[in-house]
Amino acid sequence: MDKTREQLLDELLDKQAIYELIMAYANAADRHDHAKMRTLYHEDAIDDHGHFASGPAMDFIDKLPAIQANMDILHHNVTTVNLKLNGNYAEGEVYILAFHKVKDPGGSYDVLIGGRYFDKYEKRNGVWKFSHRAIVADWAYPAHPSAVRLDHPFLSGAYLGKPGPDDPSYRFFSLFTFGAR
Questions:
Q1: Residue 1: pLDDT band by 50, 70, 90 thresholds?
Q2: Domain residue ranges of the chain, discontinuous segments joined by +
Q3: Could you tell me which InterPro entries the record lists for this protein (predicted)?
Q4: Residues 6 or more apart from 102 whose CB is under 8 A from it?
Q5: Cα gap 85→83, rounded to integer Å
Q6: Buried b / exposed e across 59-84, counting CB within 10 Å, b at 16+?
Q7: For the chain, which has fewer Cβ within 10 Å, the N-terminal or C-terminal residue?
C-alpha cells in the first residue's frame, strides 16, 4: 500500500528534525558548547570517538574540554546525509569534512579529516536525539606547520570565528544562544 500524504509529511518532518540535530552537533562541537552538546544525546546514549572516548555519550562530553583545549579551530562541515526511518527509530550515515587547527609545543598543525558518522536516533517524548554515534575516518590530510593564515588580506576586516561564547555569531544573532539547542 502506498504511503498517504500525511505519512509522507510526518516522515519529512522527522527527517528535518534529525537533520537539524546533526547540524546542531556540528555547531556545538565547533563552538566548544558542551551544554548544548548534552541536549543532543539521550541520557543513555553511546558515543564512539575512537581513542578519545568510547562509551556513554555523557562521559565523552565530560572529556571534551580537555580534548578541545589545544584546538584553536574546529570546523565540521556536513555534506551527504543518508537517513532511514522506522517509526521512532532512525539510522543515518552522515559524511563530514572536519578541519582541526591544533596548538602544539612544537608549533601549530592542521588536520583535515574526511569521514562519516554512523548514527542511531530515537524519538522520545516527541524529540529526536542521538542514541548512538560512531565516527569513521576515511582519510586525513595533515599540514605541519599549520597553513592557516588569519592575517591573509582576504580576511581583513572580517569577523573571525573562535570557540566558545566569544564567537561573533552570539553577538550577531538574537535567536542563537550559547548552551541552548
A1: low
A2: 5-162
A3: NTF2-like_dom_sf (IPR032710), SnoaL-like (IPR037401)
A4: 70, 71, 72, 108, 109, 110, 111
A5: 7
A6: ebbeebeeebeebbbbebebeebebe
A7: N
99: buried, middle or exposed (CB in 10 Å: 19+, 13-18, 0-12)? middle
CATH assignment, 5-162: 3.10.450.50
> Which set of grid coordinates corresponds to residue 165?
561564547
- Reply yes or no on whether the pLDDT at 73 is more than 90: yes
Question: Taking all residues of the chain, what is their mean pLDDT, rounded to a whole number?
Answer: 93
Four-CA torsion 126, 24, 117, 12, nearest 10 degrees: 50
Q: What is residue 106's predicted lDDT score, i.e. its pLDDT?
A: 86
Say if residues 30 and 64 touch (Cβ distance below 8 Å): no
Instruction: Dig out the grid coordinates for 7 from the structure.
Output: 505519512
pLDDT at 167: 85
Give the distance, in angstroms, between the CA of residue 129 and the centroid of all CA atoms in the same chain.
13
